[in-house]
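User: My collaborator sent over this chain with a note saying "see what the structure looks like." That's all I know about it. Can you take a look?
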Amino acid sequence: MNWQQLVIGKFSWWRLIRLPVIIYVVLLVMGGCFSYLLIFPYRGCSYDESLRGLRFLPQEDGERLAMTFHQAPNEKYLALYLHGNASDLGTIYPITYEQLRHGVSVLAIDYPDYGLSGGKPTEASTIDAAEMAYQEALKMGYRPEQILIWGRSIGSGVAMGLAERVPARAVILDCPFASAFTVRTHVRLLPFDRFDSEARARTLDKPLFIIHAEHDEIIHPNHSKKLIAAHQGQHERHVIPDATHNTVWEQNLEEVWESLFAFLEQ
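Assistant: Without extra context I'll predict from the sequence alone. Here is the result:
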């Protein structure tokens, strides 16, 4: 017996392929059974019922959906705002302040099990929650052509899911992904995915406006490139120099705002 046999044992094709097969099966199980624990890591609540603009909508499962509404001076549009997976209604003010300052009113929601919203967060439940907020905006008197479906990070996946269902002026994505799993795997390894925005972009019938951090360390800017390449309609993409995933809104975005309003008027 030579030293190779002593170290790794007798060669066989099954030994060669066994480990990759085991790893792939583990990925399938993790993706199918535990992916939402990774996609929605939020814990705790940053606010209470005294939060300004807070209101609740009843959900079909008996739980309630938390949302806030703030009307901008010199209102131009309404943003139906869908936040990231580590945020809630109490922590989005730096972004919503800029929206309000530029004449965009904000109707924002907390996903199921976020903030004071009840329920469980899944792809279906978060998109359903976004649609509830959209219907509430219509009841408030807003027309579809006034509504911007605006999603940040995980909210970009929710926004693309909602955009499949309802009419709107445009879809605005902030640091979006092509699909949830490929944020970590970079390539499509499994026969299924969560929040497959790239597939949805191929059939999106609304204008698509994207901003992405140049040095996004969480969702690589290549993701938004894929979304733009897949979209067949009016679209525009802006990469924010020197910004990381969580510092986009600390930059001077006046030129981006000007481009956005020109884009919406086309």
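A starting point for your reply to your collaborator: Residues 13-39 form the longest helix (27 residues).
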